Amino acid sequence: MASDMTPQTPARDTDIESVSVLNEDSRRQMFAFIRRERRPVTRDEAAASVGISRKLAAFHLDKLVDAGLLRARYASPGGIRKVGRQPKVYEPTDNEIRVSIPDRRHELLAGLLLEAVLTEDDGETAAHAAVRTAGRRGRELGEAEREQARPGRLGAERGLNVCERMLDQHGFEPVRETPTQLRLRNCPFHPLAAKAPDLVCGMNHAFIAGYLQGLEVRGVEAALAPRPGECCVELGPTRE
Hints:
The protein is an alpha+beta fold. The chain is built from 9 helices and 7 strands, in the order H-H-E-H-H-E-E-H-H-H-E-E-H-H-E-E.
């Protein structure tokens, strides 16, 4: 999470920007060539792979570096040291690009379920382990946010401001219906949630409730309030 209270660029926006860089044919072909080579590639090799000049290839390669798709360094191709300056070489980064509208976070759900399986206690059902794991993950996220941001006392409105940013980054598409009411327009685990609504909704609820607890937000609770086509959880004033 961020170390301050300012909004950060969502990961999906960065992915969209990276995909847009690949819209140019020569750039996309060079990127595919470099990925296939599985070794550092020089500008001359990249240029030859698509039949363009070295200068134009350098322009496109730098765009790919700026987008986080390639990394560049100076090295001797094949590890053979030669006299003079080493050429600039390019190789793929480990970044994964995923663009989905609306946002989907199946890897988060899979990670929670895997952790639940690995930590399941004797006599505990798989569903209970999954909900427990989701709650703990949310609480740890809230505690880390509070430790880094040090926001002080968080009432309903300020607390929801912080929650709104986290939920947006996780693909829930939060909408502020009132100053103390937050509705989540998207379920990032759809369509898997439709196959096991009790399990996934229970995990969603536990994750968000745990986050509120770890962040120490007063006067706000997460409640199950299913609506067609939306997340099953909403945040609102604590009920008596």
